[in-house]
Amino acid sequence: MKNKLFIKVFSIVMLGMSCFTIFSVPTKKVLGIENRGTTQVQDLNLDTWMDTSFQDSLEKSFADHFIYREEWLTAYYTMNTKLSESMNFINPVLGNERVKIEIFEKINRITIDQTRFLVPQASPFAYYIKMNMLANVETINKLSSKINVPIFLYIIPQSKDTSLIYSEFNIAPYKQFIKANLKIPYDFFEVYTLNGYLKTYSRTDHHWTYQGAYQGYKDIAMNVFNEEPVAITKNLCFPKFEFYGSFSRSVAGAIKVDFDPVCTYTYDYQPKSININDEFVESYGGLKDYQNDLDLLYDKYLNHYSQMFKGANIKLEIDSGFMDKPNVLLLGNSFTSPIRYPLSYHASHLYYYSLEYILQAEPNFDLLAFIKEKEIDQVIMVYQLDALRQKTLSQQIETLLK
Amino acid sequence: MVFSSLTFVFIFFPVFFFLYYALRDTKSRNQLIIVFSLLFYAWGEPVYVVIMIISTINDYAFSILIDNVRDKNARMAKLYLVLSIIVNLGLLSFFKYSDFLIMNLNSLLHLKITMLNLPLPIGISFYTFQTMSYTLDVYRKQVKVQKNFNALLAYVTLFPQLIAGPIVRYSTVEDELLNRIIDVDLVAKGLRRFIIGLSKKIIIANQVAILANAAFAMKDGTLNWSFAILGIIAYALQIFYDFSGYSDMAIGMGHMMGFHFLENFNAPYRSTSITDFWRRWHISLGTWFRDYLYFPLGGSRGSKYRTIMNLALVWFLTGLWHGAAWNFIIFGMYYFVILVIEKSGGLSLISKLPRVLRHSYALVLILVGWVIFRSESIAQIGSYLSACVGLGASSLNIIPAKLTYTLPFMGLGILLILPSPKFIQTLNRKLLWIGDLAILMIFLMSTLYLVNQSFNPFIYFRF
What we know:
The complex is a heterodimer. Chain A is an alpha/beta fold. Chain A has helices spanning 3-24, 46-50, 53-64, 69-86, 96-108, 127-147, 167-181, 197-200, 210-225, 246-250, 294-301, 340-344, 355-361, 367-373, 385-389, 392-401, and strands spanning 30-31, 36-37, 151-156, 186-188, 232-237, 263-267, 273-276, 279-280, 315-319, 328-332, 349-354, 378-384.
């Protein structure tokens, strides 16, 4: 290629990519494959320049908007998958699937729930896990004795705890442990044993599906309130939205899996008011207003985990308008997202707090004072089994009790 | 800002060269270089950009003073030279070595001096050596004093070589600073070199780095011999492709601006001895120490003892130049010992060996040198080398399964180090368009890796 031609071709390629990227900057707001919003460029002033936050944000924003970003990423992971497969002969002692998963973990610097995709293995109930669980259970017992309000714990084994073949065997030691040590009423999410694996757990994510969550909500309604669940009016699905669960997102399209539909239930119940992070959601008015405009509904109230009110780390107050019902404090994380709305049907006021939120946003939060002030009658804790296996929960509750 | 980022490649680079070619005279182009170079540097170092300007003013002023008095008062000229060097080395030492000194004083004398914890200004080791070479050359009358401050500032701040070399001496670009010719052939040559350098860094160095980092991050006793050896080879490839890739990008962009920087690498892993290796590796640093330290000390012209002492000082400082830590000093002294042995007759013995054995000899010593260089403590040097000879862990796996995907990049890295067969060289000459097409493909591939660097999924697994 002659030099002039080479320079011209290169300039067209480079300038083309630059210009397309720059012109796309204002339009792109969400990076679906990475489950995050695009980086916003900080205002340029002396402070942001000197601490380099302007420079960092500009670089990130440019990269986020880079032309065909998701296609580049998919190509990268596809290429690395092929490369890794071609190199499997190096380590013949491992199976291909395991090798593949380990590679993805390395590339993405995250841990993938392998047991869903590989031959089910019994989760070891190791000594340190026992110690963590003991700390968690004892802290919950302590919390119960301090607040003098009934607490109910709902435990959700995740799909990795519940292999298709040995689910009962896997979960049994945890059940025994909880039974022996926990001094408050509790229940386990049992639907996984009823051949409902694919319906109650996402194929591509570690959360339960909207159907699984509804089963869990039913359990809680029966156990805690001794009431029938609120009636479902509709089963809304959003075919336009692809569900990129934790697994598929982490491999950025390199492995093709069947996605779960993005769906939710709507209920025959409309609360009086909703506050999210102390902001009154004036236009809420129930889901009814949005049922004819699914995009708006999706945009305003749901994310692709069928989680109501978007994120997990929030505080929420739902006033059902049923004055004669108890005031309920719900503590949990993203697993509570699809059940907060129907649960509020059984309460006068439902207050939801994530412990993460309290520690980050309201470090001076006084739980005992809050319970007294809001006249809480019932505390419900909803956590996945994994949260009980880790130290964090007891540490968070201890901080709260101080 | 780093070359291997989307912002540099797709914003800074095209905007700079668009404006550069739009300007016609060298003076305006120099001013553009200064503006963009300061922006390039201040992008990541908004505070320490001042240090670089101070360093330039220091050498600008002292070189003029030296030039004014050199013929009339040699002692005064020498004094100015010493003062200039004190300022340069003072800045370098203060930022780079003060904490190392404090740490060792505290440890030796049981003191409790508080560490300064100063961040190291990017590229200070490179631009300090550049500005020092200018003043030294003015003192030695090897270059004319530069009275145009902008021209000198353009030389010091010249962004292609500012933060990671090569150490471009003033004499190399003296004429081109004020009068340089840019033609299509030179621009195309520079562009090709830039893309090749970018791909060396992005596609090979960054990928093999994953393997090297994993090997060196293993805890004592957990590293098996095969992974240890692969890790050290990976590191040897990483440091070569990283550094030479950066030099290629600098030289390529230099060409595109009309400069001719000297080569910094010459196939170092094809060396047949350590003496040969240091003539091929980081040439600009080796020749700097040779011309500004070793020769002025007397080189090998004095007694054998004096030569050894000169070599010891040069290699001690070479090690220290690489970083303020004991492993770098050991790295320098390790090569000092080998080079003394080679100079004392070892080289003539080695030259009698078959070529393959000479290569093997050099490569083994170079790899050991990289273990010293890469290790974070003296204990790690010992444990890593022990693992290499089978005194580490035993494992069925040659390397962890999740790292196997880096092996093709290692293979590619090794392949590209080997001399290319003659038919490929002939083909490349005859069918240049195939090579250019390959370079364009490599550029797209580099973009693929650059985009992936910014892949940042929101990890919400804990919730």
